[in-house]
């Protein structure tokens, strides 16, 4: 299970990025495929009500995945800097503490869902018509939370350890298992959304088993480390977890942006178009994690390069990594936007029959929705750049702008002005405004540096 050592300090940055990006991208897309595969089978096996029910659960699930990404990004940045200084034991302790923390989070939340499933479903905005389907999905999905958060943290540690291809296979294995079990549980067995949720739980268990096996027995620098009790150890734990949360908070905000998008979008579509509107929006939201994971793959591929060279003071290599990641973001953004504008019927048809009312709503809205993906991916890569250098303030500022300051007002104002079209355009406008703020910030910073250098 060993892979060739990656030299973050000396190898050409563009080559380093390629080594990390393609396995990371395939792994990320495979992670997104787990939920999307559920949607495809649910759409054809249950119908638009099934998609709407799953979509109502997604904001909560994304929030928890955000916690996993926050801890993964935070521990990876800190561990990268420790490794650049030769402090391998501290790097291992940092990753182990992150795994322990996400375990506590997932067990607590999963226990609450199992104890109060109907209350949780209503809190998420379920109608009485969809309540039985939402409860079924929540109850059978909740065991997967532990495995999903383990995977989220482990993949960061595996890429940092020089095993990006194995990290990719963890996600691919989970996706393949999910395809087989979704088909078995939904069609031959007829278990509906319960079967989709149970399939996801089992597939995440398979991926987590591979990831945890590597970190326990095979990892070189990021192997899980035994933690000892004691006053100093406990203080170090809370200090280290606090730093990880602080550094990785922009990753959490990235997931919360999508959770807020889904939560508010569900309510707005429900108000304007009823359950069919939520079903249409649900189809679009199955694709959004793919776009998010593309941006995340760019940020996470650049992260160990930036963090390691930031730790050694290699400023030019840090800037080179930024240039490479921005170029990758622009290329991927153009491809994603073109797909939504040119092929809406094909994309919607994977989930629903084209003559379905929800499908027609989605087909009309996809071209508007997709116009923001260039800016969506670019913003994620820039936020990841700041996060990788422990520059928490700008990373959080940009994340808050796109997820709260701009997105919520866009959802409130645009539908009132433009109707249903305005709902689809809320995300693109929010991302465009965030990009404009980032460009102005870079311009001001460049002007200030030029004045200082004179």
TrEMBL record:
Residues in the signal sequence: none
Subcellular location, record wording: Cell membrane
Gene Ontology molecular functions: antiporter activity; xenobiotic transmembrane transporter activity
GO annotations of cellular component type: plasma membrane
Pfam families: MatE (PF01554)
Matches recorded under InterPro entries: MATE_fam (IPR002528), MATE_MepA-like (IPR045070), MATE_MepA_subfamily (IPR051327), MdtK-like (IPR048279)
A Gene Ontology BP annotation from the UniProt entry: response to antibiotic
Keyword tags: Antibiotic resistance, Cell membrane, Membrane, Transmembrane, Transmembrane helix, Transport
Membrane spanning residue stretches: 20-41, 61-83, 95-117, 137-157, 166-187, 193-217, 237-265, 277-299, 320-343, 366-386, 398-417, 423-445
CDD domains attached to this UniProt entry: MATE_MepA_like
Key word Cell membrane present: yes
Membrane topology reported for the UniProt record: Multi-pass membrane protein
Keyword Nucleotide-binding attached: no
Family label: Belongs to the multi antimicrobial extrusion (MATE) (TC 2.A.66.1) family. MepA subfamily.
Protein name (record): Multidrug export protein MepA
Species of the source: Bacteroides finegoldii
């Amino acid at each position: 299970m060993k892979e060739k050592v990656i030299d973050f300090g000396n190898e050409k940055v563009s080559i380093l990025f390629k080594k990390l990006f393609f396995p990371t991208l395939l792994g990320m897309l495979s992670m997104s495929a787990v939920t999307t595969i559920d949607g495809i089978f649910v759409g054809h096996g249950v119908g638009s009500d099934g998609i709407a029910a799953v979509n109502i659960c997604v904001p909560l699930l994304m929030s928890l995945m955000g916690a996993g990404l926050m801890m993964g990004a935070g521990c990876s940045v800190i561990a990268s800097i420790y490794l650049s200084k030769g402090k391998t034991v501290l790097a291992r302790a940092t990753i182990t503490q992150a795994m322990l923390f996400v375990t506590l989070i997932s067990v607590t939340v999963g226990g609450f869902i199992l104890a109060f499933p109907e209350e949780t479903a209503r809190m998420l905005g379920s109608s009485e018509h969809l309540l039985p389907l939402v409860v079924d999905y929540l109850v059978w999905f909740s065991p997967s939370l532990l495995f999903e958060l383990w995977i989220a943290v482990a993949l960061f540690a595996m890429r940092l350890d020089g095993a990006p291809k194995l990290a990719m296979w963890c996600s691919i294995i989970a996706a393949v298992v999910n395809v087989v079990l979704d088909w078995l549980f939904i069609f031959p067995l007829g278990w509906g959304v319960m079967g989709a949720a149970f399939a996801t739980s089992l597939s995440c268990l398979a991926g987590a088993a591979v990831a945890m096996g590597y970190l326990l027995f095979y990892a070189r620098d990021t192997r899980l480390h035994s933690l000892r009790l004691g006053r100093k150890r406990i203080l170090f734990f809370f200090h280290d977890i606090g730093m990880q949360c602080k550094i990785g908070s922009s990753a959490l905000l990235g997931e919360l942006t999508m959770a807020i998008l889904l939560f508010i979008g569900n309510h707005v579509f429900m108000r304007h178009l009823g359950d069919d509107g939520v079903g249409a929006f649900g189809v679009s939201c199955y694709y959004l994690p793919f776009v998010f994971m593309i941006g995340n793959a760019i940020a996470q591929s650049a992260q160990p390069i930036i963090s390691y060279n930031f730790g050694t003071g290699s400023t030019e290599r840090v800037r080179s990594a930024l240039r490479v990641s921005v170029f990758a973001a622009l290329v991927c953004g153009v491809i994603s936007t073109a797909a939504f504008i040119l092929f809406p019927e094909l994309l919607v048809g994977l989930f629903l029959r084209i003559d379905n009312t929800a499908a027609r709503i989605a087909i009309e809205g996809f071209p508007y929705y997709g116009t923001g993906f260039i800016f969506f991916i670019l913003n994620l890569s820039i936020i990841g750049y700041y996060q990788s250098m422990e520059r928490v303030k700008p990373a959080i500022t940009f994340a808050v702008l796109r997820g709260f300051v701009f997105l919520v007002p866009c959802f409130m104002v645009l539908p009132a002005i433009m109707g249903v079209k305005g709902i689809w355009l809320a995300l693109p406008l929010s991302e465009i405004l965030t990009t404009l703020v980032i460009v102005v910030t870079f311009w001001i910073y460049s002007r200030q540096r030029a004045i200082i250098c004179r």
